[in-house]
Amino acid sequence: MKRLQAVGSGIVLAALLYVGFLPAGPLPALGSFLDPTDGVWATARSATLPAERSADVTGLGGAVRVVFDDRAVPHIFAATLEDAARALGYVTARDRLFQLEMQTRATAGTLSEILGNDLLEADRQQRALGLAWSAEQVYAGLGAESRTVRVLEAYADGVNAWIDALRPRDYPLEYRLLGAEPMRWRPVYSAYLIRYMGQVLSYNTHDRWRERVEALIGPEAAAQLFPVNSPIQEPVIPFAGATDREDDPLEEDPTDSIAAVNRASVPRARPVAAPTRPLSRSPAEGSGEVVVGSNNWAVAPGRAEAGFALLAGDPHLELTLPSIWYEAHLVVPGQLNVYGATIPGAPVVAVGFNRQVAWSFTNVEADLIDFYAETLDDPDTPTAYVVDGEWRPLTHRVEEFRGKRGQLLATDTVYFTHRGPLRWFDGRPLSTRWVVLEAEDDLEPFLGMAKAGSVSEWLTAVAGLTAIAQNGAVVDWLGNVAIRTAGRFPIRPDSGFRVLDGSTAQNDWLGYLPPERLPTAVNPPQGFVASANQQPVHPHADSTYFGVNWPSPWRAMRINELLRADAAVTAEDMMRFQTDPGSARADRFVPAFLEAAQRTLSEFEGGDSLRQALALLTEWDRRYTRENERAVLFELAMDELAARTWDELRAPAPDGAAARRVATPTEAVLANLLAAPLSPWWDDRTTPSVVENRDAVLNASLVAALATAGERYGAPDGGGWRWDRIRRANIYHLLRLPALSALELSVQGGPGTLNPVDGSGRWGASWRMVVELRPEVRAWTTYPGGQSGNPASRWYRDRLDRWLAGELDPVLFPAQPGDLAAERVLATWTLRPPPGAGS
Amino acid sequence: MKPPIRVLVVAVAMGLVTALIGWWMVPVAGAVWGFVASRDTWPATTAAAGAGLAWAALLGWAAVRGPIFAVAGKVGAIMAVSGAGLVAIALLFPMLLAGSSAVLMGSVKQKK
Does the distance separating the beta carbons of A792 and B71 come in below 8 Å? Predict the structure, then answer.
């Protein structure tokens, strides 16, 4: 018996020691993980803010006061810009250390070193893009005396001061889970970050799918469906040159190369004769248009009730926990007093305000990238490529990929032409020229914006952006309002929306648009400016090629509609507008569905399903409120409409998978097509015996949507059609761990509204801000999450409920530490130079 | 020494070695106790109870300094157990380590 007891104990002990010392599957080694003093429990300590703290930070020129207010926002009071950057680095590392590392590794393509081999392929693709390589080159070219280098080094000092003071038990939870250690921060990582933003905001492969579209329907038809200019114009730069805002509708009978679908001899279908069953298609296709996007607008004092300039901004990005933003206030007496959203990793306020100006950005959906088909001397081990009949040498770099234990996983050779990195797509070598890879110093423009004292100074500063192209709306204390489409826009010999022939230098870019030609509006007569990622300039005002296939301007139309209708805007109005449930898109398409059904039902008998769908859609007020029960019918009908209308764009997948749409024209193109009821585009190729017209397709889409809604969500009034049961926001933790995420959140808004929610719910308003530039500035902000990256902290997701409700928090904007009321102060920290470091 | 006192002594020892050296000293301390107290009644139980008590006290101290139950809730959810379940695991782990090592060492000593 005792022997048995001993053997059993031995087995138990061995098993416990095994799981204690070694990770088992996804679980970390349990011994150190559960240790009550140094284990995961220690992360609870950093979940709270010590009310007082004094710390040494290398490089500081003098003491820095950091006062955390009751929203956990640090107000940093420093004597120099560099010391403010050091303190910002320090507090950002305290709250967002793991995020800093993940963003850097995502840019550099080194995620497999911390997350394991599964990320190897993603790392290889990322390294082939050359973002980190580009950042290293530019940073090395900046002189040590440059302000950018000084500030980035200072920020790195702050981050590393925090890291150096950490004991293993102080590591953030994610490091404990992964069994990893924080990496030290290099100044160049801030340059990585701006390129990462550039990648998120401008990388695309439109040029490649344009080729497939042209192969399917011909170049002229492709030009109709994917036009250079949006067929509905509500440009960023106000345009008063024409009352008619729209281009001509698509031709009824285009004579170009859509012969493949031109079936003029086939009889027209009765409007109710089109197949009404839901079309089989990939769920990912949807209605085809990306529905997320940023908004900003500014109102001049003359249209503001209080007589002060107002600004609102809500950049939309992928929503994560912790958030992409970190709210901070930097004060350097006589130099800087700026408040707003910083991105962890960059010592600047990206969107914010000072006492004289306030600004916010939306992305310019411009074409900043081109692909060139290259001719190589050897497709397997190339050494040269042809330009104008001559062989030019390829440069190359060897990339090594390592795993969690430092083991070598793979080695790649990345080649470069004079245009940029060379990659193989379907066996075809394409080099990439991309504005982001040629970016320069983007810190300086942001510092200039932070210090600007007027709209004029701010416009000068924003013109220096190089890695990202942004529509910047700005107001100043004198009541000026302006908007500028800023960034580097390539000047091309021709358009840039196709894969170009790399064997001739004639296709190379000629330079960048000079700053004086950046689209800009200052104090327009309408008294406000607004942008929502739409085409920046009306082509009649400026025909410069900025891009192609612009997002439909539904949000821009809605903002402008709201602002035109309100000549006495208040800050509260501005906040309300940010989650306004109205939709210019629904206003455009719902009547089309209703009128088509009514026309058909008045002429033909039968159509019970159509009659029911018509009745249900008529009940909708076209507002995407949480409780509405009809938006779902409209959205399903829009999906069907896109699938049925653009059937010509379906092609078998190269891998033999089911056919799917190669690309989808924007909804603005579809809206434009509504004015051409007999256009061949309406015809459904799967019904060879008849030719459908507009009404037939609209009706079939609506009836099919009704069937789908019934199947998925039950009876129309059974509660299953409520919008908030169907569209949800999903905010994932950086490691996509559901336990650390906020999922299935009910939000107000839908496709095309000012608070758009896409199907996955992973994108949305990453930051909301409203500023009223009174003599004593008033401002309100929020974002989905909280200041702390520690999941156990009360500031991890404390702002989420108010963000969901569309409510913003008033912010504190003290000129000096003593201006903050004691009851609003959570903590006061003092950062000092290390003893003996001098001052 | 009365059993409760024995448990208390073991708990103090377990707490000190855990805090000063590390979790892996728990089975070492358990083995030492199993060796020196092999003639006592229930040496393994004493070791296990002492280890559990020590870790409970240390977790209690950690709770004073930060929201460890929030940590337990989040980490537990990641590991597919409740927060209370994770705390229970955190207490059971040293108990089993100390108890099993005490039994093992007691057997070795008796064999000699």
Answer: yes
